[in-house]
């Protein structure tokens, strides 16, 4: 008897690879066939997936609904995550990047709606900041995911009784990213991170983004009676920026580096002036979280209570932000610590 198929969109990305890992882990493998979907089946990440049992790798063009329909054929379960394409953002601006991701997301959910075998769709998205803030915040990389979610919950889609939306918090690896990397002062052996957010302000972190989205997705699929028709907050921990900096310093020490992190809240205007359009994108996101209660900023815009890791019973399995940082190889962590410059 053939195994039920889980189609994973973006299987070579952090979230998608985590989903594949969650369903192929010891004690969990053998129950499903994973169809790993990617735009390029020849990358090292794709080749790694091909070596796994009960996993096949298939090419998909998210700009073509016909391609997506073919990729979803006979799938019982679908996990889908789209990206706010950085190359489009940098070359054409945030509106073009938003429109590109919106189109790909709609192709995914429309194809899912036309997949007769589908039992459960897990859509990885972000909260509708514009609606939640009553129009005060229009954040392109948030809003680019909303048309797909609106389609899921619409009566005409037929997906509301076959879907769960997962809103994923900040990645534990964010200090690798340019706007979060901070200023390195090798002579003082310090890393100073400066963003427009109060040090005592709290943020939801997914923690280890290479593991935890998969654990959430597996738990969602295994508990349809709880999760169908609901929004799940993909958060492993709610921590302040000051605590985040303390975690970075702890990691430096545990990795044997005589280095510490510091934090300085900057103004929104200075952040945007320095970083340009990218600074506005991230600055608007941080201002949204700074000016709203953490619970309100991640709410289900339909008014239903949001499910948490505790509700799903998965909180003890999740890997923290500190776990993600400690688990990085030297090349990965060097993007944060600039270790080579302080040796």
Automatic annotation (TrEMBL):
Residue ranges annotated for the NmrA-like domain, each copy included: 6-251
Family annotation (SUPFAM superfamilies): NAD(P)-binding Rossmann-fold domains
GO CC annotations on file: nucleus
Cited InterPro entries: NAD(P)-bd_dom_sf (IPR036291), NmrA-like (IPR008030), NmrA-like_oxidored (IPR051164)
Pfam families to which the protein is assigned, alphabetical: NmrA
Keyword annotations of the record: NADP
Keyword flag Transport: no
Record Gene3D superfamilies: NAD(P)-binding Rossmann-like Domain, UDP-galactose 4-epimerase, domain 1
Coiled coil: none
The keyword NADP is assigned to this record: yes
Protein family (similarity comment): Belongs to the NmrA-type oxidoreductase family.
Protein name: NAD(P)-binding protein
């Amino acid at each position: 008897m053939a195994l039920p198929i889980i189609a994973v969109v973006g299987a070579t990305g952090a979230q998608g690879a985590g989903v594949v890992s969650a369903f192929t882990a010891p004690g969990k493998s053998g129950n499903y066939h994973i169809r790993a979907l990617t735009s390029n089946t020849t990358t090292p990440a794709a080749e790694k997936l091909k070596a796994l049992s009960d996993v096949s790798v298939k090419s998909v063009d998210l700009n073509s609904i016909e391609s997506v329909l073919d990729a979803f054929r006979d799938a019982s379960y679908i996990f889908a995550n789209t990206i706010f394409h950085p190359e489009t953002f940098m070359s054409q601006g945030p509106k073009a990047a938003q429109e590109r991701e919106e189109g790909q997301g709609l192709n995914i959910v429309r194809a899912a709606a036309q997949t007769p075998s589908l039992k459960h769709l897990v859509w990885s998205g972000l909260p509708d900041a514009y609606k939640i803030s009553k129009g005060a915040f229009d954040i392109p990389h948030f809003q680019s995911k909303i048309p797909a979610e609106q389609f899921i919950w619409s009566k005409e889609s037929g997906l509301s009784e076959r879907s769960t939306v997962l809103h994923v918090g900040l990645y534990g690896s964010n200090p690798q990213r340019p706007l979060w990397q901070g200023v390195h002062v090798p002579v003082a052996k310090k890393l100073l991170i400066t963003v427009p957010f109060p040090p005592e302000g709290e943020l939801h972190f997914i923690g280890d983004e290479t593991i935890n989205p998969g654990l959430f997705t597996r738990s969602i699929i295994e508990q349809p009676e709880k999760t169908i028709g609901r929004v799940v907050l993909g958060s492993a921990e709610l921590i302040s920026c000051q605590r985040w900096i303390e975690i970075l310093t702890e990691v430096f020490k545990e990795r044997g580096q005589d280095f510490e992190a510091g934090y300085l809240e900057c103004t929104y205007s200075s952040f945007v002036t320095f970083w340009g359009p990218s600074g506005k994108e991230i600055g608007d996101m941080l201002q949204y979280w700074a000016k709203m209660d953490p619970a309100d900023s991640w709410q289900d815009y339909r008014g239903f209570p949001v499910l948490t890791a505790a509700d799903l019973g998965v909180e003890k399995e999740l890997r923290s932000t500190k776990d993600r940082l400690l688990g990085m190889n030297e090349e990965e962590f060097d993007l944060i610590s600039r270790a080579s410059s302080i040796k």
